[in-house]
Structure prediction request, 940 residues.
Amino acid sequence: MRFQILGPVRVWQGTSDVELGPPKQRALLALLLAHAGHPMPLHGIVDALWQEDPPATAVNVVHRHVASLRRLLEPGLRSGTTSNRLVRASGGYGLHVSEEELDLLRFRTLREEAHRSAQQGDLVKAVELLVEALDLWRGPAASGIPAEIRALPVFTAIDDEHVVAVKDAAAYVPTAGAALTERVLVTLRQAASHHPFDEALQARLIEVLAAAGRQAEALETYQVVRARIADEIGLEPGPELRKAQRGALDQSHRPQPVPPAAPAPLATGAADRVRPAQLPRDLGAFTGRGAELERLDSLVPDPAEPAQTVVVSGMAGVGKTTLAVHWANRLAPRFPDGQVYVDLRGFHLSGAAMSAAEALRALLDAFGVPVGDIPAELHAQAATYRGLLAGRRVLVVLDNARDSEQVRPLLPAPHGCLAVVTSRHQLQGLMAVEGAHSVTLRPLDESEARGLLARRLGAVRVEREEDAVAEIIRLSERLPLALAIVSARAALNPGYPLAAIADELRASHGSLDAFTGEPPLADARCVFSWSYQALTPEAARLFRLLALHPGPDCSVAAAASLTASRPRQARTHLTELVRAHLLFENEPGRFSSHSLLRAYAAELVDELDTSDEAAAATTRVLDHYLHSAHAAETALAPHRERITLRRHAVHTLPERFPDQRAAADWFDRERPVLLAAVEQDGRRGDGAFSWQLATALELYLDRNGRWQQQRTVQTTAITAAQRGGDLLGQAHGQRALGFALSRLEQWEGAGEHLERALNLFEELGDTHGQARVHRYAAFVTNQHGRHADALDHYRLAQELYRSAGHLNGEASVHNEVGWTYLLMGEYGKAIDECSRSLAIHQETGDPNGEAAAWDSLGVTHDRLGHHERALDGFRHALELYRRIRDSYLEADTLVHIADTHLALGRADSAGLTLGQALDILESIGHPSAEDVRAKLLEIG
Prediction:
């Protein structure tokens, strides 16, 4: 088993990575590794993991994590057996690891050996040992654990050991020869970039550069460091830096030895002496991305393994370059033959992407190939490049790529090399042809976003205004670019409260006004525009029009309706937007985008599309949802009365449903979009879509127990219909709202809204509407035990259905009258009414109504003690509900079956049946699940 703490915390069992579990558990392992060989007291573990605010269960949590780690580290350990690896000692825990197993112990041993070699005068051996020790590092110690734990002294002290080792290597290297000097320089540059104000470290860099004959670079480094210290701290360089500068000046004035004449070398021969170190400076405020860094680390090839290519892709502003540069700087010591960086300008303000030939010339130049030796043709340049890298271990960072063809000639071929490519496109060609690995970035998670703000603004300021920080993160939707722009503004105004910035973001929500900085890189509009300009005209139009789409995600059919195109065309354009990371495909066929991209698209619609074009697109997409919802409701309850819709707009593509399950699944997928569509048209449209869509949603929302959403939707619909003077819309909304309030047991409001609905339907002469209101009113009066009043309402509903010739409506009323008699204890009348209902529904072929009648008959027989007859009725109902795939009523019937089993003394059967009902109710999120769970607990 091998353990790594010099970088991300990792464990290998043989060649396999061990999954280390949740963050606190991983952090516990890191603490034990950092204290390897020394037990850590339990109170010290609790203090480290929770610091000033441990929960009451902290000790128990530690014990659970220890148990989990033991199972991971000793898979064969039986329960109750003493662990030989993670042991209990000194009132806490310790981890037994050897030097061969833990990189930290090996690092310290190599440092000690180097120190002894230096004392004995063997500086070359000392440098070799230090280089071997520094090669063990894969980044900051214990990176990837929570930032507040990573900041503990035990880990920063390990980081300090790294810096001391680098300084020691730099002190010994001037006498160690050119090859070792180049290897130390790579690590020294990286450490100096991570610690820009460590004057001793910067001085070592200047001294080593000068000793390697790079006096000009040494003096330039001094000027850069001097300016940084003056600008950031307001001080002049200290004596160590000034001494290093004087040494570089002295060497620059000495005559350099002239090498003997030699035959003109080949391009690659001249380049053999050059080991470029071109990586951009790592961002000091980098934070987060622990999971992505761990995934990236797993892809680094060993020297003997084939070259690897990693594509880091994601939307504009998500931090692709920042992550790639940070990771590359961490990896630099592992690629001693050079690290090169090329900005391919795939998405650039100028619009001029770098050609592959231009990029190859830059790469060859980086390795010292004279301009005159670089071939003119692309294939010859690529061959020279591949030959140049033969036998070398090189890291190539290709930033901001446009497409796969731009990148392919630039990929290194030799074993052990690594190419890191960033792009706003997915570059699927590289994955398919070159076997590249993909790492897709999404916006930061909540803790990472908070960490970014804390690194830029200071932890104290962030902790002082936690609510404002949470609002900033929410409104920025955790996009690194947006957070960087906001934090830059806050940093420039340290006395400005973060709450005021949050208020500004809230006021401009839905636009990019609050995310405007210094262009091009710190301005969201400018950055997004580069991706937009690279689109085909058709995909660009779809991107704009998606700003008019009402909900959080959309389907292919909705996109086709929006753009008046065919589904196949819409799918092609959606795929282009996904590849450009302007959309996410969160699940097959469902597409969404970041809210800031939607805001940018909305601005483009206003700028580039006429109001008539935008209105037509909005009508098509709302028609798509309205007519699809109407078709889905029809599939769910074919014999239920419903409104008549006008013909949908030309080029609209409503969904069609083969059965009830498909309709219910569509409602499940589209529910957030449908609710948003009701709200959007209710606020900004004429309201006609709003109330009609709310009416189509009524049955689905009621069956699934989403009564709070029903109340919200119907209230919006009523307001919209009132604004448009639409009496029919008001009537349907009042009726549905009244019934929803009765489900929520808000009886007074339910009665008021049902009465208003009845008056409106009477004024309109709508008999179907009146009948449905009477049925709902009967439900309310039954709930209050006023069964005679309920029967009066049912009598009126029956007459209205009969006058309208609605036979299935009459049959449904017979069943509900039968249920009322059941509540009254008049079981004979209940059986008569439910039997009449059953006969009519069987005659008209209405399986919904037939199933309801069988269920009512089953309950009635159960009350009469006819339990086997009751079970027979329930079985009929259950078979029908399953056939028509009505999940909620299937669960309701299962509960009735369980009641009958209990009456027969069959507790086991009742428990199994209730478990089936509970599974269904929990899967659809129905509130009745709580009652069923309680009943299960009662029977044990």
